[in-house]
Design brief:
Keywords: Cytoplasm, DNA-binding, Phosphoprotein, Transcription, Transcription regulation, Two-component regulatory system. By secondary structure, this protein is α/β, with parallel strands linked by helices. The chain has 2 domains: 123 residues, Rossmann fold (3-Layer(aba) Sandwich), CATH 3.40.50; 97 residues, Arc Repressor Mutant, subunit A (Orthogonal Bundle), CATH 1.10.10.10. It is built from 8 helices and 11 strands. The protein has a 5-stranded parallel sheet with strand order 2-1-3-4-5, sandwiched between helices. It has a 4-stranded mixed sheet with strand order 8-7-6-11, covered by helices on one side. Helix 1 packs across helix 5 and helix 6 packs across helix 8. The model has no long low-confidence stretch (mean pLDDT 83).
Length: 234
Amino acid sequence: MTEFNMPLILIVEDEPKIAQLMIDYLQAANYRTHHLARGDEVVAFVKHTPPNLILLDLMLPGLDGLSVCRELRRFSDLPIVMVTAKIEEIDRLLGLEIGADDYICKPFSPREVVARVKTILRRCQRPPEEIAPPSPLVVDEMRFQASWAGKALDLTPAEFRLLKTLAQEPGKVFSREQLLNHLYDDYRVVTDRTIDSHIKNLRRKLEALDADQPFIRAVYGMGYRWEADECRLI
């Protein structure tokens, strides 16, 4: 890793020995460092040279660490680790009001500082989870209506219930008996083959809107399963 690609850690600490200790350990762990001893110098530096993470002492000349953190959060979401010897401040440091990501208590192990920095940077650099696009199938239970890719489906009540049952659990195989139990609430006597007829009609209506999409698949000797995306209930 070239020096240019090494993460930059800004150390804001007014005690020279503590600052140098953190600098030595962080540089040994392949981090670049920059040291500031005053709180009122931090905002200007961050705006000019944004670091990857800030180790921010609580008690600083010029401007205290809590005030610095609040100022930074007005324009930046970079990770901030508060460093404090004031145990009574921990509850405030953990609160959302100042926007700190973590805290370290003095006296501390420099190895702990390096480990904490690694963990936070790894978490921040993790790629965001991909957001799945919304399903093209929308089922409106209140209006008893369904649509595929914005096109309305003209369904009977039995076909609507069948579609909703299958599409709510894609990949699950429903037996004909299970599907029949979802179709009628008046306990009428019907045969298993009634499902086959409804499935045939439902497939025809769906494929008329999208011929390339595998919607409902028969599983020999077992029943049917939904092959497309899960429905969006509204």
